[in-house]
Amino acid sequence: MDATDRRILRALARQARLTNAELAEEVGLSPSPCWTRVKRLEQSGVIQGYHAALDQAALGLPDTVFVEVMMERHDEDHLKRFEDAVTAMPEVLECWLVTGEYDYVLKAAVGGTAGAERLLREKVYRLPGVRHTRTAFTLRCLKRVLSPVP
C-alpha cells in the first residue's frame, strides 16, 4: 500500500459515496487507475464494505451506553451462548471481549434511562452466566472514526 492508496482510503472514509470520477479527481489520478486501485483494495480485504451512518436520535435511540459485563463462568459454552445472544440484539452496536475486571464491553443505542433499563432487565440480565454489570451513559461523542488510515 502506497501513499496514493492511503489517499483513496482517507477520501472513502470521509465520503464512501464518491463516484469513481470524483474520487480520482480528489486523489490526483485518472479514473481507470483509480478504479483499479479501489478494486484491488476491496479484493485484498483492506476495504471491507461501505456503510451508511445513521442518526440514532432520528431512529428514536438518542443515547449511547457502555455496559461492562462480568461473567460467572468462562468456559467456551457459556461465552459462546452470551456472544450469540448479544450479537442478535439490534440495540447493541458493538461488543468487545476485553481484559481487566470485566469480560465484555457493549456499546448500545437506547432511548434514555428507560431504554437502558429495558435493555438491561429484559435482555442482558436474563442471559445465562452474567454475574455483574456496570453501565455508563455517554454525554457527547467527541470523535468517531470507523477505521484509521495511517
Q: Can you walk through the features of this model?
A:
The protein has helices at residues 3-14, 20-27, 31-43, 76-87, 112-123, and strands at residues 63-71, 92-97, 104-110, 130-137. The protein has 150 residues and is of the alpha+beta class. Helix 2 crosses helix 3. The termini are close together. The mean pLDDT is 95.
The helix/strand order is HHHEHEEHE
Name the CATH homologous superfamily of the largest domain.
Lrp/AsnC effector binding domain/regulation of amino acid metabolism (RAM) domain
| CATH-defined topology of the largest domain | Alpha-Beta Plaits
Helix content: 25-40%
Contiguous low-pLDDT stretches (5 residues minimum) are: none
Per-chain topology:
Layout: H1 3-14, H2 20-27, H3 31-43, E1 63-71, H4 76-87, E2 92-97, E3 104-110, H5 112-123, E4 130-137
Antiparallel strand pairs: 1-3, 1-4, 2-3
Helix pairs in contact: 1-2, 2-3
Quick structural gist:
With 150 residues, the chain is of the alpha+beta class.
Notable traits:
single chain, 150 residues, alpha+beta, Alpha-Beta Plaits, 2 domains, four-stranded antiparallel beta sheet, 4 strands
